[in-house]
Amino acid sequence: MAERTYKTFTDFFPYYLREHAKPGTRQFHYVGTALVILIALWAVFSGTWWALFLMPVAGYFFAWVSHAFVERNKPATFTYPLWSLAADFRMFFLAVSGRLGPHLEAAGVRTGSEADSPAA
Fold first, then answer.
1. What span, in angstroms and rounded, lies between the C-alpha atoms of 100 and 107?
2. Residues 35-48 pLDDT 10s
3. What local confidence, expressed as pLDDT, does residue 115 receive?
4. Which has fewest Cβ within 10 Å: 12, 62, 82, 87?
């Protein structure tokens, strides 16, 4: 089956969530995204600019591990790199704020109490 071509981020985001249907996949992404944010803050506030090169390593390592061993699918970043990056941060901040559940449900992802929180 041919992969659909998405023209807008609004159309892409539900697809992104379906590609992250398992709570474990999302939790790995949350760890990677949190590390990216922490590394960026550390680099800025300490002046350790070389640390910025660690950001993609931290983010992609956890994401790719989750897709290989939890979700068992191809990361969306290979097809939609910029939208995947934006969607990852959107998913992270929706989860941290407790507002991810309705987005998952609208995308057709079955949720449980553990699916809506990055701490689960």
1. 11
2. 999 999 999 999 99
3. 47
4. 82
For residue 21, what are its two tokens? Answer: 């249907």
pTM score: 0.88
Q: How many residues does the chain have?
A: 120
Selection from 1, 5, 26 nearest residue 79 by Cα? 5
The Cα 41–Cα 117 span in angstroms is: 23
Question: Beta-carbon neighbour count of residue 43 at 10 Å?
Answer: 17
- Average pLDDT on 10-14 reads 97
Collect all residues with Cβ–Cβ distance below 8 Å to 4 and sequence separation of at least 6: 15
Residue 107 is encoded by which pair of tokens? 């995308």
Q: Is the separation of the CB atoms in 60 and 51 below 8 Å? A: no
In the chain, count of helices (H) and strands (E)? Answer: 5, 0
Whether residue 18 contacts residue 94, with contact meaning beta carbons closer than 8 Å, is answered with no
Q: Is 80 helix (H, G, I), strand (E, B) or coil?
A: coil
Tens of pLDDT, residues 72-99? 999 999 999 999 999 999 999 999 999 9
